[in-house]
Amino acid sequence: MADIDQSNPENRGNRLELGKVLTLPNFLSISRLFLLPLILLALATGQSVTALILMLLSWLSDALDGYLARKMDLVSNLGKLLDHLVDKIWVGTILVTLVLVKDLPVYIATAVIIRDLLIVLGGSLLANLKKNILSSNFMGKVAGFLFALIIVVYTIDIKRLDFIKNYLLIAVMVAVILSFINYLYLFFKTINRS
User: Fold this and answer.
1) In 3-state terms, the chain is what percent helix, strand and coil (to 5)?
2) Residue 154 φ/ψ region, left for φ over 0, alpha for ψ in the -120 to 50 degree band, beta for the rest
3) Does 2 fall in a domain?
4) Does residue 13 form part of some domain?
5) Which InterPro entries does the annotation name (predicted)?
6) 83 CB-side CA count, 13 A
7) Is residue 42 part of a domain?
8) Residue 76, φ and ψ in degrees, nearest 5
């Protein structure tokens, strides 16, 4: 296989260097996928505490990968894309599992998964057209926090928390809608930028 001529300005940045792919932040992103089957098994077998501990490890690795990428100056479009993709797979898989084993309403999982699929498709389009990946913003972080909260509430499934569920379901739907509208705004703003 021939090397890409990096002296040609059109080809610069098209070659992935191994050292830029195999970074600690990217490894931490991928590690969340390895924890996923263990979380699913814990949920399916009613081991809520084990599931929560594994989820906590996943969330810590998610926070740590972004922090390390910034601290070690390893932020890259590949890293951003990988982190977002792993997040979407992780959340979608957990939500579907909670629908099956913990009675999470199907419409919540469906709304979040459709939103996330559209965001991944839009992100891929931006990466191809503009060589740009949108970073998470405040609205995305609020939505992510609410997704995490609903995952925790449905995982522990304590009857005394049932009164919170309805309010949380409404908050998640509002967050899905507002974060998607915000993403569309940023998407078109980036697309229209010269």
Assistant:
1) 80, 0, 20
2) alpha
3) no
4) no
5) CDP-alcohol_PTase-I, CDP-OH_P_trans, CDP-OH_PTrfase_TM_dom, CDP_ALCOHOL_P_TRANSF_CS, Phosphatidylglycerol_P_synth
6) 26
7) yes
8) -145, 160
